[in-house]
Amino acid sequence: DEMVKGLKPGLKLKKVKEGAYYSPDENVMALATGENRWKDSKHYRFKVVSHELGHANHFDSKELSLKWMGRKYAPVIGEDFRQVKIGLQAEIKGMADGGRIAIGQKKLHERVLTDYINIRREISKKGNTPELLAKKENIAAVFDTLGGITKGKFGGGHAVSYFKKLNYGDMEIFAHLSENYFSSNPYFKEVLPLTYKQGNDYLKKLLK
User: Fold this and answer.
1) DSSP string, 2-62
2) Fewest CB atoms within 10 A around its CB: which of 5, 20, 59, 156?
3) Stretch 98-115: mean pLDDT, rounded?
4) Beta pairing, strands 12-16 & 28-32
5) Residue 185 DSSP class
């Protein structure tokens, strides 16, 4: 299966009440089966698996990892991923109408936040339908990607302190590109079409 192709053997699965994660030291993928989102949405379940396997893939491929330097860890970033990141920054800067990249970042933040608020309102009126839950998760993925590329200045999904650690923000970007590749994200494709395509091409090459 393409999702696990190239991963080191012995990946273990673990059920937790909340907070899915992948641990490279233990080679464990923890799935938060106790969360309501996990219980309510098949789309969410597949996206979580795609996301956490993305973390496993960037560690195992060494595209994004950590290197012990004697006293502390240093980030390791592969050149191919660096080019994807440069493309994402350029696409966001293109939203600034010739201004600074921060203007584009703010515009994207405001658009995604507005869309997220609106989908939450629609869910409150119509209930947790599979279609609306999928839309909400897709929007949240873009917000988290923006948090990753700006180290928490814009976007969301994780604490600012998390985004500022080493290359953790880059790891979240990679994990969302993994979601796009394996389970698609029409909202991401609409808002960041160039990055969506570049990310899919990048992962197709990386995972072949």
Assistant:
1) TTTTTPPS--EEEEESS--EEETTTTEEEEETTSHHHHH-HHHHHHHHHHHHHHHHHHHHT
2) 5
3) 97
4) parallel
5) -
